[in-house]
Amino acid sequence: MSDGRSDGVGEKIVRQIARRSSRRGFLSRFAGLLVAAPVIPLLPVARAGAATRPASPAAKPRGPLTDFERNAQTSDPNSCDYWRHCAIDGIICGCCGGGPHTCPPGAEPSPTSWVGTCLNPDDGRSYLIAYRDCCGKTGCVATGENCFCNSQDRELPVYRPQTNNDIIWCFGNASMEYHCSTAAVVGLAG
Amino acid sequence: MPRGQFHYTQSCGGCHGLLGVSARDEVPVLRDRVGAFLCTREGRDYVVRLPNVAFARMDDATLAEALNFMMFGLGGSSVPPPSRATARPFTAHEIHGLRMRPLKASDLPGLRGAALAGSSADCLAGVGG
Prior knowledge:
The complex is a heterodimer of chains A (190) and B (129).
Chain A: H1 3-21, H2 23-36, H3 44-52, H4 67-71, E1 89-91, E2 108-109, E3 114-120, E4 125-131, E5 133-135, E6 148-150, E7 178-181, E8 184-188
Antiparallel strand pairs in A: 1-6, 2-5, 3-4, 4-8, 5-7
Chain B: H1 3-11, H2 13-16, H3 41-49, H4 51-54, H5 60-74, H6 92-99, H7 108-116
Helix pairs in contact in B: 1-5, 3-7, 5-6
């Protein structure tokens, strides 16, 4: 190996080291990073992170949606999958000549109610819903196809009766005869 | 809605009424009455040891918030003045100890009378209301 050849190899190695470690090389790579920076948050990983972040700092973390919540709609209050009906067990009064807050003629609202918490898919917020039974009249024979409901969000078995909605919530009325159920919004949850 | 009111509404308000009044013959009225339990130490203990309170699906801190809404939010004229030592808000620590000893007797009216027996008539004014 001649001195000239070894010098050439040595020079090549030194130049490569110099290129990798020079301030100019660092600056050129740093500049490249700066140019790329706006693109980095658009990568799929960053988007996935943003998607799981709460909508606002005040939003409380919550568990996965229930089956009811995944299928709830906000346009037809006389259907079991209407968002307010996440914990209703009975016949919707709107199918019987009443409304979401009102009993049909001849039926009397119970002073007691079963309270549920339902998610409104339109605004993403949860509301307290009072299911107030209408009593004192024989059971409503609803004409609609989707009027007899048995939703079970937050319900527990009947051996915890306070948290079970199979019970007729007519106590406090002159008659325990069940007619239908209303679903009134009584507050924003949280 | 404040947290205490939310948990009261969700877990208690269906029967007791959203404003503390519902079916008077079946469910005790809370509005302008329940604060009287703050007249005595025994009254405070009694309320927390009631089975539906002690076994409520709430952790100690949440149950304290719900009870404090019940007492001070619904109790109205029955709440003793703050100068009375037993009229302070419930804490999670106090709740934790009491709910470990839920009432087992069925004579709740008798126990209620005994819990309030040591109090003065002026403090209990709300009970008969």
